[in-house]
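Dear colleagues,

As part of the handover before I leave the project, I'm documenting each prediction I ran so the next person doesn't have to rerun anything. This entry is a single chain, and its sequence is reproduced below.
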Amino acid sequence: MPQDSPVTLAVIIGAHGVTGEVRLKVFTEDLKRYKSFNDGKMTLKSVRHGNNGEIARIAEVNDRNAAEALRGTELTVPRSALPPLEEGEYYHADLLGLSAISTGGEALGRVVAIDDFGAGDVIEIERPDGKRFMVPMNADAVPEWDSERLIVDAGFVS
């Protein structure tokens, strides 16, 4: 993924109260470290835990109507704004869209989703015919990946 590509860190899922706060579905552990989103169009003033996601105040939003109008809006930052990774770590955004091939060289499809059902990430791959299959994101199933492809052990391919 290019360093200037936008990465979604949260999405606005609705308004909270009447003063313009928004409810967020957050995809990062530390949203507070970022102050500016969407190429500087949105400024995060505060964020706190709520019953149904995080509750945030955005400087440019001053009333409930404006907050409701933003429902579905993704809050993005450039890929280059994310912290550096340790060896073996990855950002989901870097894996989505990668070509998947088997250890035997067979083209399998593209990575279309990454889920975590509690035991670690699971990669969903869509074949060219539209059928999908899943593999765990571990060293046994995915022994190697880089910025261009994800290699899947043939024993995990269904």
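The longest strand covers residues 6-16. The chain has a mean pLDDT of 92.

All the best with the project,
I.
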